[in-house]
């Protein structure tokens, strides 16, 4: 398991240090130790390198490949057997038109590519101070998601009125992927962490610190509130575009208002994320230090991990560049085949909510589950809740602003059904975290909730317009009129008459 703290200049083995990792300064030592840049040798007295220190410099291809293959855990190492699919996906993309095969191979290829990015991020983060390292690792873990959202919004096509409204429309898939990413972390990943920790230590419940869960669930509820407002606003007023026809409150006016509300909300949510980072790194960092360091001393394979070969800083940057290049290339291939996959019968909401988050979160999930297995439950919990916070407060608002810059109508008008599931999921997770204990049964129940959501969305119908809360659907459902009169009414609404 890869940890995210720097051992500083202490010259004792990690397994023997019980007074803080910064020269015995205590459990609540500062994030940036004064000895970080001193000239003390970067190895322990018995020859074991400090956590994050490789004992080498420069670039060594044999060590580089060996460290990458071993990865951070046995599960991550097993994922590396999927690397041949990277070559297969690229070759198929250039040589055939077998869209489903291209999608399937690129989907599988994304797992080792994302795993490489996650591991390179861990290697970089472990060379940093503790909490800063975890924040950096979480950020690198979200790079895959950000690239996915950017590729999707770039591929989105705004159709003209005479075209099929669903042709080239990827906004519903982006919206589903945003919520799916949060749900996957909160239900599937957290559930598996509780389950594996409970199975290994089944004689007693796993205890975790309140500060991680309280801050996390509070921020997620605020984010859910922000994401809910545009959807609730639209749902409350969409029928009024008919009754207020002569008052110029048209469908176009409502859509413009939703877009403006979404952009304003996106800016406010990003401000909330910045405040969260400041809070994590300053006013409460001593609390987080104590919690994280307490977990590190309880790590089951701490001594074994300290003895592993590690990347140099140069090798770390090379791994980051290679992994980002592979991830971007494979996501471009993957997104290019989405419409063909949807036409083959896979619902686009299921694709966005379940399939895409599973593959782009695979590396983070493996890391968190491995930490839970090793008994580092607070860090595992942070790796489940932290990415969810970043998705809700930063990644989702960021794609709205990117769409704004690209002239694409990306908004936060989610399906009420979907946003309702998000709020309920946050409440369920918050209820399980309230007692600061977990067991394998609670983990199983979270996974079961996720499976129920996956089953429901496999049968969820595809949207016919940019949002399936569409005004045209509302008119067709609530007003029984001849087809030609209905078309004239819709044309009048769109024209603003």
From TrEMBL:
<keyword id="KW-0472">Membrane</keyword>
<feature type="transmembrane region" description="Helical">
    <location>
        <begin position="440"/>
        <end position="460"/>
    </location>
</feature>
<keyword id="KW-0926">Vacuole</keyword>
<dbReference type="InterPro" id="IPR004837">
    <property type="entry name" value="NaCa_Exmemb"/>
</dbReference>
<feature type="transmembrane region" description="Helical">
    <location>
        <begin position="317"/>
        <end position="336"/>
    </location>
</feature>
<feature type="transmembrane region" description="Helical">
    <location>
        <begin position="100"/>
        <end position="119"/>
    </location>
</feature>
<feature type="transmembrane region" description="Helical">
    <location>
        <begin position="173"/>
        <end position="199"/>
    </location>
</feature>
<keyword id="KW-0106">Calcium</keyword>
<keyword id="KW-0812">Transmembrane</keyword>
<keyword id="KW-1133">Transmembrane helix</keyword>
<keyword id="KW-0406">Ion transport</keyword>
<feature type="transmembrane region" description="Helical">
    <location>
        <begin position="261"/>
        <end position="279"/>
    </location>
</feature>
<dbReference type="Pfam" id="PF01699">
    <property type="entry name" value="Na_Ca_ex"/>
</dbReference>
<protein>
    <recommendedName>
        <fullName>Vacuolar calcium ion transporter</fullName>
    </recommendedName>
</protein>
<comment type="similarity">
    <text>Belongs to the Ca(2+):cation antiporter (CaCA) (TC 2.A.19) family.</text>
</comment>
<feature type="transmembrane region" description="Helical">
    <location>
        <begin position="74"/>
        <end position="94"/>
    </location>
</feature>
<feature type="domain" description="Sodium/calcium exchanger membrane region">
    <location>
        <begin position="100"/>
        <end position="280"/>
    </location>
</feature>
<feature type="compositionally biased region" description="Polar residues">
    <location>
        <begin position="1"/>
        <end position="12"/>
    </location>
</feature>
<dbReference type="InterPro" id="IPR044880">
    <property type="entry name" value="NCX_ion-bd_dom_sf"/>
</dbReference>
<keyword id="KW-0813">Transport</keyword>
<keyword id="KW-0050">Antiport</keyword>
<comment type="function">
    <text>Has a role in promoting intracellular calcium ion sequestration via the exchange of calcium ions for hydrogen ions across the vacuolar membrane. Involved also in manganese ion homeostasis via its uptake into the vacuole.</text>
</comment>
<feature type="transmembrane region" description="Helical">
    <location>
        <begin position="416"/>
        <end position="433"/>
    </location>
</feature>
<feature type="domain" description="Sodium/calcium exchanger membrane region">
    <location>
        <begin position="317"/>
        <end position="458"/>
    </location>
</feature>
<feature type="transmembrane region" description="Helical">
    <location>
        <begin position="131"/>
        <end position="153"/>
    </location>
</feature>
<feature type="transmembrane region" description="Helical">
    <location>
        <begin position="211"/>
        <end position="233"/>
    </location>
</feature>
<keyword id="KW-0109">Calcium transport</keyword>
<dbReference type="InterPro" id="IPR004713">
    <property type="entry name" value="CaH_exchang"/>
</dbReference>
<dbReference type="InterPro" id="IPR004798">
    <property type="entry name" value="CAX-like"/>
</dbReference>
<feature type="region of interest" description="Disordered">
    <location>
        <begin position="1"/>
        <end position="20"/>
    </location>
</feature>
């Amino acid at each position: 398991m890869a940890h995210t703290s720097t051992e500083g200049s202490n010259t004792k083995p990690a397994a023997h240090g019980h007074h803080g990792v910064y020269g015995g300064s205590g459990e609540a030592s500062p994030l940036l130790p004064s000895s970080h840049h001193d000239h003390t040798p970067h190895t322990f007295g018995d020859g074991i390198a400090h956590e994050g220190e490789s004992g080498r410099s420069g670039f060594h291809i044999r060590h580089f490949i060996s460290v990458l293959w071993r990865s951070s855990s046995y599960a991550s190492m097993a994922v590396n057997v999927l690397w041949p699919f990277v070559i297969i996906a690229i070759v198929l993309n250039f040589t055939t038109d077998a869209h489903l095969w291209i999608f399937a191979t690129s989907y599988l290829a994304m797992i080792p590519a994302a795993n490489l990015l996650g591991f390179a991020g861990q290697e970089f983060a472990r060379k940093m101070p503790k909490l800063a390292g975890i924040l950096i690792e979480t950020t690198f873990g979200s790079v895959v998601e950000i690239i996915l959202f950017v590729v999707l919004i770039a591929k989105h096509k705004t159709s003209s009125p005479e075209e099929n409204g669903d042709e080239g429309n990827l906004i519903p898939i982006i919206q589903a992927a945003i919520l799916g990413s949060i749900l996957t972390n909160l239900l599937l990943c957290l559930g598996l962490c509780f389950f594996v920790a409970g199975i290994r230590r089944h004689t007693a419940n796993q205890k975790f610190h309140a500060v991680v869960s309280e801050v996390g669930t509070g921020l997620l509820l605020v984010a859910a509130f922000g994401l809910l407002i545009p959807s609730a606003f639209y749902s409350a007023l969409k029928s009024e575009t008919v009754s207020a026809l002569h008052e110029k409150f048209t469908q176009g006016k409502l859509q413009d208002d939703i877009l403006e509300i979404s952009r304003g909300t996106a800016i406010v949510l990003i401000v909330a994320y910045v405040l969260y980072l400041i809070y994590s790194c300053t006013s409460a960092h001593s609390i987080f230090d104590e919690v994280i360091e307490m977990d590190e001393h309880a790590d089951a394979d701490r001594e074994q991990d300290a003895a592993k070969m590690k990347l140099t800083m140069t090798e770390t940057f090379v791994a980051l560049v290679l992994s980002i290049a592979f991830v971007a290339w494979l996501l471009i291939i993957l997104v290019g085949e989405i419409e063909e996959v949807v036409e083959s019968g896979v619902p686009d909401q299921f694709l966005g909510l379940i399939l895409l988050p599973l593959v782009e979160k695979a590396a983070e999930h493996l890391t968190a589950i491995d930490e839970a297995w090793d008994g580092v439950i607070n860090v595992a919990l942070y790796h489940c809740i932290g990415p969810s916070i970043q998705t809700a407060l930063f990644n989702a608002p960021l794609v709205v602003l990117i769409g704004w810059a690209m002239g694409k109508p990306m908004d936060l008008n989610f399906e009420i059904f979907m946003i309702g599931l998000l709020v309920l999921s946050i409440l369920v997770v918050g209820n399980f975290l309230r007692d600061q204990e977990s067991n394998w049964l609670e983990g199983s129940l979270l996974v079961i909730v996720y499976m129920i959501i996956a089953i429901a969305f496999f049968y969820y119908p595809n949207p016919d317009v940019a949002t399936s809360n569409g005004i045209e659907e509302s008119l067709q459902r609530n007003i029984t009129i001849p087809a030609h009169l209905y078309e004239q009414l819709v044309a009048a609404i769109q024209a603003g008459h």
